[in-house]
Amino acid sequence: MPTKLIIDTDPGVDDAFAIALAALSDEVDLLGVTSVYGNVPLAATTINARRVLALCGRDDVPVAAGAQRPLVHRHPNEARYVHGADGLSGRSHALPEPSRPLDERDAVTLMADLLAASDEPVTIAPIGPLTNIAALLAAHPAAAEKIARIVIMGGALGHGNTTAAAEFNIWSDPEAAHRVLTGGEAPCVLVPMDLTYRCAVDAAWMTELGTSGPIGTALDALTPDYREHYRGALGWDGMVLHDAVAVAEAIRPGTLRTERVAVQVECSFGPGRGATYADRRLPALRAASAESETGAETEVAVDADLDQLRAQLLAGLRTDANVPGEDRLRTL
């Protein structure tokens, strides 16, 4: 049976790849997409999500706009320096315009309605700040009963990318991340940047995608600013598809190897704000510690067959047999 899936997203180049991976997969019943502020402001993330779905021929999927800011404290800045001014290297306008209007419901209401209407549990893949998901769990507690897993791209077990300690998605709204990861309402899988960096793809992978057909060409065309950033971050010509790695796990459970641990999120205003701390001590040692009351446990992704995962991502993103040809794209 296809995985019933909702994606909560802030596109973002890697978000665009993640949305396309799900939208093109016959292993997925993509129920809806919700947008959140993050890499760029909400208006940009919302139209970007809708245009990527239109590129994939998926105007049947509803899109609803969500939070414009974090739960408590204002978002200090976006990640335009990574994703470009519009979130897609300045090329969002080159994607097809969606024919389906933006859903009149807000993101939380759409998610709650989709969960209530589903006849089986639904996976949610939040690949941006966790504000919408925290609001869903707070406003609709019964919705958690319909959630199979929340597969989150976020966090870092080592160093961060936005600060020395914190990864961007968690740093953007630590209070929301704390609610989702420690609340225990629904099973969580955390896919941290330690692993997603190891899954980086190289220039040859991008060339193969870019020459695979109209969708691959369009996705490759969105990457110049993002790829330039990662040339510096990686030290070689490649880029990191953080969010697509998480969505691959959401689509096909077991793609990533996980460890079940307690995760805490730093919500202070010190240099560690937004850091994620995974307690990987042996259970006996945790139980004996005075600090063992750390809330619900989370499956944290720690490893994968990297070559197999890269091949899986490439195969999924090359799937364009059901989409009309070059006339779907504007001049790129």
UniProtKB/TrEMBL annotation:
Positions in coiled-coil regions: none
Q: Name one GO cellular component term.
A: cytosol
Q: List, for all copies, the residue spans of the domain called Inosine/uridine-preferring nucleoside hydrolase.
A: 5-309
A GO term, aspect molecular function = purine nucleosidase activity
Instruction: List the transmembrane segments.
Output: none
Gene Ontology annotations of biological process type: purine nucleoside catabolic process
Key words, A-Z: Glycosidase, Hydrolase
Q: Which InterPro entries match?
A: Inosine/uridine_hydrolase_dom, IUNH, Ribo_hydro-like
What single Pfam family name could you report for this chain, choosing any that match? IU_nuc_hydro
Q: Does the keyword Thylakoid apply?
A: no
**PANTHER family attached here?**
INOSINE-URIDINE PREFERRING NUCLEOSIDE HYDROLASE, URIDINE NUCLEOSIDASE
- Would you tell me the protein name for this molecule? Pyrimidine-specific ribonucleoside hydrolase
